[in-house]
Specification:
The protein has 561 residues and is of the alpha+beta class. It has 22 helices and 9 strands. The strands form 2 sheets. Strands 3, 4, 5, 7 and 8 form a 5-stranded antiparallel sheet that branches. It has a 4-stranded mixed sheet with strand order 6-2-1-9, with no helix packed on it. α3 runs antiparallel to α14. The longest helix has 34 residues. It is globular and about 80 Å long.
Length: 561
Amino acid sequence: MNKDIVELQEDVSNSSLYSADLAPVPPSKRTWTKWDLAAIWVGMAVCIPTYLLASYMIKTGLSWVEALLIIGIANLIITIPMVLNGHAGVKYGIPFPVIGRASFGTKGIHIPSVIRGIVACGWFGINTWLGGLAIYSIFIAISGNDAAVGLSVGQFVSFGIFWFINIFFIWKGTESIKWLEDYVAPILIIMGLILIGWGYSNAGGFGIVLAQSKQLEKPVAEIYTKDNQSFINIYPIVDKEGNSKAKAYQLSFNGTASGWQTLNTNPIAIDNLKDGDIYQIQLKNDKYTSSKVAVSLNKSDSSVGSKIWLYLIWLTAMLGFWATMSLSIADITRYAASQKAQVKGQFIGLPGTMMLYSFVGIFVTFAAIINFDDILIANDAPWDPIALIAKFDNVWVVVIAQIFMIIATLSTNIAANVIAPANAFSNLFPKKISFRMGGVITGIIGILIFPWLLLNEIQGLLIDVSAVLGPVLAILVCDYYLIRKKEILLADLYKTNGLYSFGGSGFNKAAIISLIIGAFIAIGGKWIPMMRFLYAISWFSGFIISFALYYFLMRKQIKTA
């Protein structure tokens, strides 16, 4: 028998905490190799949110190199606890909600596992909506109709179709998920390379494409003051020769638009600027008109401290991207054949894929702003790949590309946003809620959170998630490695009156206290100015505080026991 694997030796099937879905996976069914696990990560990491990640950073003034480095460093950092937390999944063959009973208690684990589950439901809804938009784009391309402005019945019907496709794989079980990821991974890698090839060939070279970064780092227009006079500077998109693609501009002041003016005077003087004045600007050329955007006030701060602050904020946000998976990674590693497979598979699959597909998003968007004549301002750059693909005139290019988008979104959704909440909901009532039923509940909640309203809240959502879930990960890692020394009484995890019932209450007070204090320390800066720095690095501050506090409380508890 593999010494790295511990099997259940006692019959606990009558316990209310036991079900076939939550039971240890027997060695004969641990068939996932390092390549299966790497494929899982390729399938999860290649998604529209990954494609969009760098855009949020570049819009705040970071260069593409800075954005890519932050993404790479964050994913190397998060892979370490991912591997540490995945160890128990391999050794005992059990999912996160069952492992968590050792540290939080048989009832206490519901708090972090349901929080993790609800967050995954939110991501499930967002990705399902995006997948639905891809289906809707196929319909528009084939039918020749114009896409509706705003929300439409067609978009919601497409959302429903993609929702049912997800539910099909949920119902088929984990082996169908493994099959999906294995076949999808190479397709997704090829898709990324094709997109880079398109950008390179149409724009005229890597150097030309990457030089466009400076255009997207700037606002469309900004107000600044010099010698007691206020001015507006306009930054239209320029072509490869450096010529402005826009020919005219229109200013709106407090809701009232002026006439169109030739774009040959820059900067534009404005008189009597007062606090509360709202300026908006719109650009056009002979064929196209840009969207209308607010003119921002120049608040740029190029100091070293300001730059480091921005780096920390984005590093924390990027850690939050996979904060949920770092908790529930045992849901996947329980199927791994060995510890080596889970370690190599995760390091092969996660950091590199995240950097590759973030670069794909960067490169293709840079290429698009010079390849498409209708992009006149930075705000209209098609960072969203669905919006980009819809710009192509060839119907079959649009259809095939959107099919790739659907495949990418499906593979991410099933592996990253279904397995964990399905197990979390099943753990609430093991005898009544199966993995399948938990997956369906996930899908229903994914509808009820109205994902079409969440797409613009991603940055804040990621930071807040990392603040709450960093402490949970800290408690799990501290308990497993420092308190339990990687030794868990497997049968007791399924007993209502066993070691992990903590005296019958089902709650480990040390874990609950550590979670509450760690989460407060991390997220309190959102409302308390003196704690703002801790909020900027919420994943780190929450993790460190909860780790140290849990260790102290548990060591004290063991000594007095």
